[in-house]
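User: I've been trying to design a sequence by hand for this structure and keep getting stuck. Would you show me what you'd pick, starting by listing the structure so we're on the same page?

Assistant: Good idea, let's start from the same input. This is the structure you sent:
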């Protein structure tokens, strides 16, 4: 069984991610990270390696939004690795090398895509968390339509950052499934549909918990009263 937890890097999901991993007690926890990004998350004061300009702007954008939420970008990934350590299981880093991915993206994007991309990122300097919430809800309402529109506007971005990474991470999970009977994989919510289809096509059982589920209240424990009133504090 492979469980895909669909997350977002700028939302406070620390407690829910850890809770879902503890409940499932997987044999391994897989993360949408490569080794360099994992080390950068674990050592926030480590100087950034030289990265493409667009990548740096995206990182700065994520940091600003995460700061609004009182977290660091990727904190849900750290929470997942901490949960793996707590239950005594290994962590698998399943993403492709980010530096190489973005370098190839920069080389393969058309001039028009680059101009549209820079314009979108510059416009994001004025976007606040509320606007991001609205965009996330739009994506959650119809994933297929959202990514079809993305592909029409930025075909290279969709191919390199979404489709090809879906294939890479799904393949890594297929290899992990040969060694581990149960896996929880923490990935960006936009990857869940594509990875689910690829894994199912390889004959693997897949369940998914989406970002909207993780941002909502936890489901009641089996046997609990549905009429009970319970308050939850997601801070740790």
């Amino acid at each position: 069984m492979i469980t895909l937890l669909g997350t977002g890097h700028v939302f406070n999901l620390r407690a829910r991610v850890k809770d879902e991993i503890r409940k499932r007690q997987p044999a391994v926890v897989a993360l949408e990270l490569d080794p360099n990004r994992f080390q950068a998350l674990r050592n926030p004061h480590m100087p950034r390696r030289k990265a493409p300009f667009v990548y740096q702007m995206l990182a700065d954008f994520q940091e600003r939004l995460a700061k609004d939420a009182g977290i660091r970008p990727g904190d849900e990934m750290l929470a997942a690795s901490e949960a793996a350590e707590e239950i005594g299981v290994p962590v698998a880093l399943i993403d492709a090398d980010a530096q190489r991915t973005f370098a190839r993206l920069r080389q393969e994007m058309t001039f028009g895509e680059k101009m549209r991309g820079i314009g979108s990122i510059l416009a994001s300097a004025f976007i606040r968390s509320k606007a991001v919430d609205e965009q996330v809800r739009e994506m959650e309402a119809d994933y297929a339509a959202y990514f079809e529109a993305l592909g029409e506007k930025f075909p290279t971005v969709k191919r390199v950052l979404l489709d090809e990474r879906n294939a890479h991470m799904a393949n890594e999970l297929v290899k992990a499934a040969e060694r581990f009977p149960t896996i929880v994989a923490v990935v960006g919510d936009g990857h869940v549909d594509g990875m689910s289809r690829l894994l199912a096509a390889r004959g693997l059982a897949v369940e998914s918990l989406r970002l909207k589920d993780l941002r909502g209240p936890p489901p009641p424990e089996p046997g609990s009263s549905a009429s009970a009133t319970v308050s939850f504090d997601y801070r740790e």
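That's my pick for every position. To get oriented when you compare it with your attempt: The CA atoms of residues 23 and 221 lie 11 Å apart. The first strand starts at residue 2 and ends at 7.
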